[in-house]
Amino acid sequence: MQKLVGKLGLVIPLYTSDNDLTELLKLSEQNQHEDMVDDEPLDTGHAVYVSSTCPHTVSLQPNIPNIIQLIHSLDKISKCNSCDHNIENWMCLSCGVISCGRNIQAHAHDHHSQTSHPIATSLADLSCWCYLCNTYIENNITNPVIFSLHQKKFSSPHPKEK
After folding, report:
1. Is residue 137 within 8 Å of 119, Cβ to Cβ?
2. Beta strands in 89-152 (DSSP E)
3. What's the angle, vertex CA 121, arms to CA 118 and CA 122, rounded to 5?
4. Is the pTM above the cut of 0.85?
5. Which of 47, 51, 69 lies closest to 119 in space, CA to CA?
6. Smallest Cα–Cα separation from 96: which of 131, 132, 60, 138?
7. How many Å is the maximal CA-CA distance in the chain?
8. Labelling 116: which of 26, 85, 92, 129 has CA 20 to 30 A away?
9. Eight-state DSSP code of residue 4
10. What is the pLDDT of residue 34?
11. What are the φ and ψ backbone dihedral angles of 113, each rounded to 5 degrees?
12. pLDDT, one tens digit for every residue, the chain (162 residues)
């Protein structure tokens, strides 16, 4: 066994109480109990619901060709129109403005508040968000934008693209 481990270039540390897995398991079990309140697990997240029936996407339909044309002209890293931040940015699907998300300086939400433009898409994870429905959306109207962004970001077609 030692010869095989050596050939593979692996190093197996000597046993000590510090690397004893039974001790790590005990710590893990203790941590699980700390995540409980009155014998109920703490809320550590939730499932994301994606709607296919957002009524606000219809208003986007005339803008989609312009948005796709804008996507083709973008650099791979696009900055927030307000603060020049280059991560967690969203593109407004009504006008194409790129703004940072809620976890940065919330310029995308500010843009929605100022313009009432209902839907933006994340340049990070390519999801679409409707501010008016307060939910993620995916449908035949937003899909061409997502497919174009995917092609731009990954230089390959989106798996759902026909």
Report:
1. yes
2. 89-92, 98-100, 119-122, 128-130, 135-137
3. 135
4. no
5. 51
6. 60
7. 68
8. 85
9. H
10. 42
11. -60, -35
12. 667 656 666 666 666 666 565 654 555 455 444 444 445 555 566 777 899 999 999 999 999 999 999 999 987 778 999 999 988 999 999 999 999 999 999 999 999 999 999 999 999 999 999 999 999 999 999 999 999 999 998 999 999 887
Give CATH for domain 50-154.
3.30.40.10
Cross-strand pairs, 36: 41
Task: Extract the tokens encoding 97.
Answer: 């403005």
- Helices 143-154 and 64-73 pack at an angle, to 10 degrees, of 10
Q: Is-contact 123 89, C-beta < 8 A?
A: yes
Strands 40-41 and 36-37: antiparallel
Single-letter residue type at 76: K
pLDDT at position 47: 77
Buried b / exposed e across 88-113, counting CB within 10 Å, b at 16+? bbbbbbbebbbbbbeebbebbbebbe
Tokens encoding 28: 């893990």
Domain ranges of the chain: 2-41, 50-154
Tokens for 16? 């000590």
